[in-house]
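Sequence in, structure out. Go.
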Amino acid sequence: MIEVENLTKRYGETTVVDRVSFTVERGSIAVIVGTSGSGKSTLLRMINRLVEPTSGRVLIDGRDTRGDPAHLLRRRIGYVIQGYGLFPHRTVAQNIATVPRLLGWDARRIEARVRELLEVFSLDPASYADALPHQLSGGQQQRVGVARALAAEPAVLLMDEPFGALDPIIRTKAQDDLRGIQQRFGTTVLLVTHDMDEAFRLGDRVAVMSAGQLLQYDRPAALLTRPAAEFVSRMTGLADRALRLLSLVTAGEAALPGPSDGPAVAPTISLREALSELLWSGADSARVVDADGTVRGRLTVATILARGRP
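Output:
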């Protein structure tokens, strides 16, 4: 758990982060979103004391982060930046092993952890362990960057615009990979982005910042249906709000009893995807079917559109 209490950062007379407070529950993903200059990256860097707060405090699992020297604190917190920051003259395995070596892990334990993470990120150890960063694609470098941040088994992972350099297709895959890895290891993730779609795709809760202040911190559906400020409304997008709401609900959650002669859709897809399938096929309804063939119910275009109304 991350608890941020009245965190403030001033540079001279300029307040960059102004008395921000929020809590990230253990094992969840929270996303900080805002325009350039909103203070979101500065806020993130105060969590691991890359930037020292002017006032306020941060607690991780109830422990004040000021209780340890900053360099030792950062070894307990995973950190991923845009561009991934891989050491260019170190192999993939050596990059991933960076923090475990600093912590004094023995060689056998390090080797096992590197192999585990490479396999988790679908990077064959035989092919990639001895590769250099310049030999990897952008998506592969991104995976190695996240693997390195997770190498020492941190309870907390901080990510500053981690997918900004990826093209849209790879970016979506990377987001899905992050959610899967986070659930596997139970890591608490705090991620910064300027992309509201990314925030809604990943965040259990989303913090909207402007001019150093936290305007609203809530679940994505609440930001869409009950924005606390005009700026939050603009950030969530009036025109896109219905489609974003549909992205938050699965077909399985919205299925109604009854038969349908329409196309079959999986219960795990979003209503936005289900609506696209219905419009593409020209059908009025779809069957919601589990992988084993069990029919959960049906969805109609009217039902989906009703769920998209704020």
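Check: The longest strand covers residues 14-24. The radius of gyration is 22 Å.
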